[in-house]
Amino acid sequence: MLRIIFLLSLLFALSNASVQDFCVANLKRAETPAGYPCIRPIHVKVKDFVFSLGTPGNTTNIISAAVTPGFSAQFPGLNGLGLSTARLDLAPKGVIPMHTHPGASEVLFVLDGYITAGFVSSANSVYVQTLKPGQVMVFPQGLLHFQINAGKSAAAAFVTFSSASPGLQILDFALFANSLPTELVSATTFLDPALVKKLKGVLGGTG
Q: From which residue to which does any coiled coil extend (predicted)?
């Protein structure tokens, strides 16, 4: 009986010893596909697990919108947890164009204002809703989605991702902010070459 108790106690101790509760990012080291290396637990502070998204981003740009990231590089306590977050600010008429996150699903929580958001499924079904403060919408991983300010005043939202590295590809930039020849873009999008050239000029593309 004593032997069984001893073995159970040893097993319990070993299982506890193998648990790593967190891996706060060591930002002095290079990031790897698995995230940042961990700092030693003795150097971990409570501030590593706290981050502020209370300051609006600068929306003075072509899309009248700003995204303030809260990824591991800004929020070291997220490292290794498979999560990331950000703040979204939309000035009046602001828009986050059609884009996709290849590596994560996204949850959007509207904080202020009204935001029309939606996504397109792989079957080309469209799901669109105008969200008010307090409402939440989810965008499944890899699907094209967007957000537009639907009101006359500034709007803000918090987003969370199911990955530390959700990735980002904005459709407009993928099409028109590159060096693909205009003829190829026109042929694959059915857009007039003159319009393609105009959009490339606006977004900094060439070709």
A: none
